[in-house]
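JOB MANIFEST
job_type = single_chain_structure
chain_count = 1
residues = 751
[input]
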Amino acid sequence: MTEVNRPQRRAGAGPPAHLGRWTRLVTARPRLSLLAALLLTALAVLAGGGVADRLGSGGWEDPDADSTYATRALEREFPDSQPNLLLLLDAGRASVDDPAVAAEAERLTARLAGERGVTGVGSYWRSGAPALRAEDGHEALIAARVTGDEKTMGETLDRIAPSYRGTHGPVEVSVGGPVAVRHEMQTIIQEDLLRAELIALPVTLVLLVMVFGSAVAALLPLGIGIVAILGTNAVLRGLTNFTDVSVFAMNLTTALGLGLSVDYALFIVRRFREELAAGAEPPAAVGTTLRTAGRTVLFSALTVAVSLAAMLLFPQYFLRSFAYAGIAVVLLAAAAALILLPAALVLLGHRVDALDLRRLFRRRGPAATAQAAASRAGEGTGWARTATLVMRRAPFFALATTAVLVLLGLPFLGVKFGTADDRQLPSTAESHVVQQHIREGFPGSPGGGLEVLAEGRATQEQYGAYRDRIAALPDVQRVDGPLVKGDTAYFTVLPEGEAVDEPAQRLVGELRGVEAPFDTKVTGVAAVLVDSKDAIAERLPLAAAFIAIVTLLLVFLLTGSVLIPLQAVVLNALSLTAMFGAVVWVFQDGHLSGLLGFTSPGSIETTLPVLMFCVAFGLSMDYGVFLLSRIKEEYDHTRDHDQAVRHGLQRTGGLITAAAVILAVVMVAIGTSRVTNTKMLGLGIALAVLMDAMIVRSLLVPAVMRLTGRATWWAPGPLRSLHRRFGLSEGEPAAPAPVEEGARDTVGAHR
């Protein structure tokens, strides 16, 4: 390329006015910035206290679905029809019909009926219902309904369960049912989250020391992460006053709070050190860092927030909760990285490299000092060689990596969607044990049937004719009812097979199609699953389009290219194939279940793939922005496409890999949870970020960019003008005339 095509920095060019004011504020009053941030953090600690106790453990259903309406109507009109508490009475070798066993069971039933907050108490010994007696005759059930919201139900269960659990005369009592499953899940998640934090924090600190060398520099990302986590807890605590929030969202708060804080701090501290090494004073180095890496961090945070915001388009509060937590923690991590971190760097100056623990493992003396200096001078040369090799064999690497990623994703073609149940819990959890006994030993799986709500005046003959039409359906085992109250009635339909298998889901549609002289709505576990799947399928194209369009726009504003945004979306989506394939192969099909310690339900909870896609896609964009911004900066300065790709990978390859490894450690710590959904989320995203950093960013991106060549940077004239006016990129602006000439050269080369 001729020298005339190499744009030069404009003399005296600086950042936009708003960035300049921000830089001057942070560098001129660093102590004030730190003090204000610390005061806000202290307030967040107070505001976020007790947030876990206010979070729910449900949220998988569509609140506007027919099944949700029917469930609420039955709870209101027929509260006894919706038992959520089950006491499993085990008579040992005796029969449940033994007089002593029956007497003790009747005493427990009467006692439970007198408990505050409990209604609709019934039992096998009172009703004689076969569904409440085990087929071997040694176990039977007492069923009841605990009233109130999730918090109230949990408090009631904590109050009454200890006095029923255990040995009572000739029977052994275990506590189960949906309310016990939810409460036990919530308790386990809180315990596991604390353990994950105790694992992740020290391991992250060790890895940061290895990356930075300096113990002082290593503590900075942890401080930012803690601020982001505490601030997000306060946000979630405030949101619980207005809407339901899932307890699962706290796991994402911890993972993203630590992971993104490490990402942003690595990027900013790395650039700060570069400026110091070039001879800048600390305030000037921070100013340049904010104008370059700071803008990239802000841009990256926006791309991650966009991916997470897509979950707001879905009606399930489980997904919406992750959007609340994710957007809050991303923005708070970015804010802390752009306020707290620069202020700390101004105050620390060259002391950011203090307490270099790596020197303890290096030889002392002038030779060691010279070796360390040479190492720093050649930092990233291995990544430069990797980029050179990949671009030299670009077709091979592009095809090979794409083929491997597609192959790893093939198991997802056999995905089966289900609903979260007791099998999310460890096999030793009491409520899981109770439900497993019911599944394996009781006829018809109590609690797994379908309820049909009938609204409108009808005669007994009309009810009877409708019942006969239901009983004639091929997948129906038995129909009970109707139970009538005024103009409302309900039928209980027991399907053949499992409560949520394909025949049961098919039966939901068949029931909704049965002709009736009154309005009918179907609920039950299978109906909730069908409605949840329909709600996700309806909104999924809109969410995908939202992510794609906004991502395309943001990456265009970063690069000014038409092709790079398309590459970013396609390659990011491709990087997630291994995660989805592994989720099905491991968690649905049950491979490695013994090693990882979970019970496979044979399906994937419907909302999990959506959640994992949004989170993993956002994190992939995070790494993508870091790489593309450095490539774009070098291309603006040299107009040498291959050199820009090589330089970008050289300067960010190690950084991205280190950030991905640290984030993977945090996610694996989350993945040690005893709750299967949390385990799946943690381990799946850990795999996704590692594949993205080590395969896609290191091999596939440079290979594809080599194949597209200088056409990578092409854009039509109107879009180039738009980018010059509104675009955002790392590095100082280039002089307008050479840039325009270079752009014309680029266009002309590919006409």
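[summary]
DSSP finds 26 helices and eleven strands in the chain.
Residues 178-212 form the longest helix (35 residues).
exit_status = 0
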